[in-house]
TrEMBL record:
InterPro entries registered for this protein in UniProt: Amidohydrolase (IPR017439), Bact_exopeptidase_dim_dom (IPR036264), Peptidase_M20 (IPR002933), Peptidase_M20_dimer (IPR011650)
Pfam families, per database record: M20_dimer, Peptidase_M20
Domain Peptidase M20 dimerisation: 196-286
Record's protein name: Amidohydrolase
Domain of life: Bacteria
Amino acid sequence: MTIKVTDLASQVEDLYPKLVELRRHFHSFPELSFSERMTSEKILLELKALDAFEIESGVGGHGIIATLNMGEGPIIGLRADMDALPIQEQSKESFTSRHPGVMHACGHDAHMAILLGTAKLLAEAAHSEFLQGTVKLIFQPAEEDCDEKGDTGAVKMLNSGKLERLDRVLALHMCPWRETGSIQIHDGPSMANNDNFELAINGSGGHAGYPQHVTDPVWISTFILQALYSLNSRKVNPLDVGTLSVGEIHAGHSNNVIPHTVNIKGTMRSYTSEVRELLVQELKQTAQIVTTMGGSFELDIQKGEPALVNHPEINQVIRKAAEGLRIVEEPFGMGSEDFSHMTAKYPGALFFLGCGLDPERSLHHPEFDIDERAMVHGVTIFMKSIQHLLWKGE
């Protein structure tokens, strides 16, 4: 099928200065999860100026849904996340973060700029004779964090009732390890289930010079750590994807006092529900070692995002839309993405958009930055995907 496009390449190229302006604005004023008030206000201002969308704000927190109805047909969702990270930026750029300790180090600033650029082109194509259906632009808060219930922004938006029907849903993520002009894509499980844990090992502390009178939780923890790390190599099938990592260990306040408690925090990542459950059960069994050594424990496991499962049919649309770019077929790794909640409910896919400047300055790095030219490709892929999905023929 040949899709008639009225010089889309030229339209997107003309849009490039606006994409840069938007991205740099968001980058200068980053806001943490659940606090995206100024970000939301800026997005609303830009959308209202287009005078083409039905706009709902305050969805799932500071989320926004902008709907463009072009007649009966499929309902397509395009999602961009809005929040930044608690990182102190190390940059000399004029648009560096003006909020100390907060930084767009994961590309969400570019995601929003790309979706707003897509909005502008959609507004111009609102009365196209070739497109039929509805597009919902989903600006989602709180991808990077969850609330006290464990809910991220995607969950909150889905629970709001404002996204009750989507026939397809798409998203992208900036990819600093791929060069501009390329995308990374993968069918099926592509990012990991994400479960965090906190294990408190309790003993009976006391004077470090009299260890025979105490139950030393630090000593016990050395056995626990060995057992935890053995789960990766001895319990998970080498042909499966699954890993457990410890990120925090806290114990004591003095060199001559054996503490009462050692706190261990970590994460478990997997691609399948079977490996996910295996790691949980093995962690629970490993914790029992504490009691055999005379201590006690408390174990808290927080279930996070499910694995991101990309629908092959939607990926095929993205491949067609990315024609002319380099396409790398490969999973995205063991990171997690709460867009997975949306693809668990609706057929959807997320692709990684090459934007690399320096592979050393990767995601969540204090010097993270992107090649802004990549945003042109992001808008183009979104627009061509919409054309493929809503094309009504001659």
